[in-house]
Amino acid sequence: MSYKTIVGLEIHVELSTKTKAFCSCANEFGGEPNTRVCPTCLGLPGGLPVLNENVVNYSIMAGLALNCEIQKVSKFDRKNYFYPDLTKGFQITQDDMPICEEGYLEIEGDEGLKKVGIFKIQMEEDTGKSLHTETYETLMDYNRCGVPLIEIVSKPEMNSGREARLFLEKLKSTLKYIGVSDVKMEEGSLRCDVNVNVVDETSNRKTQVTEVKNINSFRGVEKAIDFEVQRHIKLLEEDRDEIKTTRRWDDVNNETILMREKYTVADYRFAPEGDLVPVVLSDEWIEKVKERLPELPEAKKNRFIEEYGLAEYDAEVLTSSTQLANYFEEVAEHFEDRNMISNWIMTEVLRRVDNIEDSFDLPFGPEDFASLLKVIKEGKINNNAGKKVLREMFEKGKNPNEIIEEQGLLQISDSSEIENIVENVLKENTQSIEDYKAGKDRAFGFLVGQVMKASKGKANPKIVNELLREKLNNL
């Protein structure tokens, strides 16, 4: 039998505005519980919502970055349901008239380049947070109530857990790049629900859609989908069916667990939000927001390949964060060997940086890093000495030339001085000379090592090799 997996994603992204969506409370993570609240975000009588203009601007930016059509007129609705974290008894969201529609993201799918459609992007507010204690009590923190969200709803056009993970990774990178969200899953800034079912392509029978919630990593999304696919295939093989359900992902046991029957649209009793007027956008407003949009990751990667002559993998790594990409370009202004910059950043710099997505604040500037690369390129110090200098730069933030001078790391490039060392080494290693003449290649490497040892590692290796080979061939 042949089975086809169908996956759609619903992604909630908290926007990084200074204040909440419909009130002036601070939009910040953490803080003492229930200290960043007011009558509006608590849903108290008399508290009326006032739309934060930057929520609209950030939503437009996200829509443009995700190739969406920006709707000139959109409206807010009330999504009704009862839960302790929703004080009003309804959520302000958008239903049939969202701010963005018909977008897409391209990923490297299972069968090559694939365009995954985005059904809509809607503005809405976040709910509070339930804290469950060891004594089986539930405490409520409403600081998160009213935090601005965009919900990004993909079309069901992904066909594996891997494709869903790649979609999420690219989405996260794009939203981080344009600065509308910090997209930190560990802080709840990016949350994802999965919808998955399976079609038997022989009989055209399909399983009911399962929604999976509470997934806290992209790898978890991939594993949850893979688990559900196997569970759905088993349902088809056993000729069983089930109603639409909502399940949660158990990271410990790597399985999904039934939570409840899945809500339908009718359950939410959508109705227009009477306290907010429709959002009407002019061409000038959209164009003004478009001008604020930075260069997107894919465009920057292609430019790095074309402008700097980098390999595709190098360009992809270097453009994975705006800070890293900016640092590379700042170094490139002072040093022309762009591939050398790339190699040193990816091998020696990134292994000393914990998280390039959150911070790329090095203890030395791009000019100092360029200065180090120059002295290595010019042969004034060798690679090993360069790595030693870079380590000191990380630990003490010193200028590379200062470190080189303090530690006496400059290479000996004077041919006459190196020639004297070579001659002394040959006098002391007559057996190695005989071995070299007998065709034993290791003898040459041994002699090079002896010269480097005698020079305390300072002799220019290229000159050492040339002089040593010349002397041996003339003996």
From TrEMBL:
The keyword Protein biosynthesis applies. It catalyses: L-aspartyl-tRNA(Asn) + L-glutamine + ATP + H2O = L-asparaginyl-tRNA(Asn) + L-glutamate + ADP + phosphate + 2 H(+); L-glutamyl-tRNA(Gln) + L-glutamine + ATP + H2O = L-glutaminyl-tRNA(Gln) + L-glutamate + ADP + phosphate + H(+). Its EC number is 6.3.5.-. GO terms for biological process: glutaminyl-tRNAGln biosynthesis via transamidation; translation. Residues 326-472 form the Asn/Gln amidotransferase domain. The keyword ATP-binding applies. GO terms for molecular function: asparaginyl-tRNA synthase (glutamine-hydrolyzing) activity; ATP binding; glutaminyl-tRNA synthase (glutamine-hydrolyzing) activity; transferase activity. Transmembrane segments: none annotated. It comes from the Bacteria. InterPro entries: Asn/Gln-tRNA_amidoTrfase_suB/E (IPR017959), Asn/Gln-tRNA_Trfase_suB/E_cat (IPR006075), Asn/Gln_amidotransferase (IPR018027), Asn/Gln_tRNA_amidoTrase-B-like (IPR003789), GatB (IPR004413), GatB_C_1 (IPR042114), GatB_Yqey_C_2 (IPR023168), Gln-tRNA_amidoTrfase_suB_CS (IPR017958). Pfam families: GatB_N, GatB_Yqey. Heterotrimer of A, B and C subunits. NCBIfam families: gatB (TIGR00133), PRK05477.1-2 (NF004012), PRK05477.1-4 (NF004014). Belongs to the GatB/GatE family. GatB subfamily. This is Aspartyl/glutamyl-tRNA(Asn/Gln) amidotransferase subunit B. It comes from Anaerosphaera multitolerans. The gene is gatB.
